[in-house]
Amino acid sequence: MKLKEKFKELKKRKEGALIGFITAGDPTPEDTIDIVNSLINGGVDIIELGLPFSDPIADGVVIQKASERSLKKGTNPDLFFEIAKKIEEIPKVCLTYYNLVLQRGLEKFVRDCSESGINGLIIPDLPIEEAMPLLNACDKYDTNLIFLVAPTTTEERLQKILNVSRGFLYVVSLLGVTGARRELSETVKPLLRKIKQISDKIPLAVGFGISKPEHIKEVLNAGADGAIVGSAFVRIIERNLNDKEGMLSELEEFTRELKKATRG
Amino acid sequence: MKLPNKLGKFNGYGGKFAPEVLMPAIEGLEKAFGKFIRDSEFQEELDYYLREFAGRPTPLYYAKNLTEKTGGAKIYLKREDLVHGGAHKLNNTLGQALLAKKMGKKRIIAETGAGQHGVATAIAAAALGIKCEVYMGTEDIERQKLNVFRMQLMNAKVIPVSSGSCTLKDSINEAMRDWLTNVETTYYLIGSIVGPHPYPMMVREFQRVIGRETKKQILEKEDSLPNAIVACVGGGSNALGTFYEFLEDEVELIGVEAGGKGIKTGKHGATLCTGTDGVLHGTYSKLLQDRYGQIEISYSIAAGLDYPGVGPELSYLVKKGRIKVTSVTDDEALEAFKLLSQTEGIVPALESAHAIYHAVKIAEKMEKDQKIVVNLSGRGDKDVFVVAEALGVKL
To answer: I want to staple A3 with a disulfide (CB 3.0 to 4.6 A). Which of A22, A167, A255, B112 is the partner?
Structure first.
């Protein structure tokens, strides 16, 4: 299913989107399908699969460690796309860093996304200035290049980003790296307001620091269309490295709690 | 055409591959640098610090004994090892710290490998009265305890980095993460001609003083330009700083990278010699990477050359054919380290010893009336423990 249809469907049901991130191949490539299935059973709406990079500058320590675990077990882009292909019943997006896309070749990377049912690409180290070549490749294969905006983003930049954004806009809730935070950042509400004044056409999903049902309620009440949870899932994986059954049931239960919060 | 262009590109290399959170700060830095580099008051203040505090201009010293022993071209040493702090690094940190101060930043962060850039940042920050924190890999902290303590003496806080390979590239990752978090109050002081635009251009401009002085000095001494200039390349700031004034001249420019244990062993830092194009730490340049684009771990006995990337402008100038590159192994560098110490009474940094080795090698084959300039980018006090260990000497 495409992102656009998913957001439309959720809107009809008056629900927010729960977007769940995990690092593909963590703790091993064999576990990814089971982990994704736990999230699906818990009710996740969109899966964001991380393709690990050796130097993830936008990630906090939890996802850094997940990337290291995954790379150590031999995860690479070839394997990543094979795994992605096996996840069929849910919209998928890929998060990775630009060098991995470049080395595969922009067109080939996007074509592989498209062929494995990945409908969106998030590249945290690719700002709009450098994005034209990848945008063109994405347009060719009907894949959404998802941009990030931050509390520091100026109105001028916001305008430019909104003009080319597809799928959804990734609203970074705070200044910093990924990672669960106790409190939701105060910067997120004014940021959502600022974006909505310029455009209300594209769904807004808030990420970075979202780790609890209350956070999700708060961002949805503030006008977001979805919430992205990453490190909180990865932390469950990290805590249960030696107990896969426990890991999977905890993931499913946690997803269920989070999803409930999207139903208002 | 003057490079980089508005997008920070050197004919395709360079650019700004940074997270959106940082982009407004990067734009702000670009504007501030553009303004102050043309500001005569800023220039006067920087000149003052370079002269009165850093000890510039540094001599261009005729290495008579080394030349006679080699029996070929005249070898001149640009004595950046005499800059306060012991390396060329201070040229850049004074420039950037002064800029940070003008921009009203209250806190400076930096990454460091061997600790030379960390020390130079700590010096500049202390001199200008700005708070300073330095990220350093735990592996490097262990190897360079002396520099850790030097930084602490000057009131800088050294933050250990234990992610990834626990070396320079991971310290850069961690410094960038800090900058992402504290971008509104903090200035990130990068130590080489790497990182997103405007850093490669900015660091080049602050290091150009090396080449400017060299040109004036060699013309005074020899009434002609040198036939060749040799400098070591890690990130590339001492090399580009030395070469830049000579790009339009008929002078051979040679960068020397870390051959480590030998290129064939895979344990080296020869990014320009063997690397491929890609994006790391905000810039498009040559990299040591695998076929998927994962960054490989570099190696050198000289921590300052131990980096899997290199400045984008050097990648461009090498591709264009204007700069030649070669590599020198650990063992060869050690040989040159001893040679310069014994013949001239100058203990070079292991990084600079790479350049010395290659300069001697080519000087042998040149005529006696020809001239080579080597940029002696740093002094070797910091390396005595590593060298003693490599030579099997117990201190």
So the answer is: A167
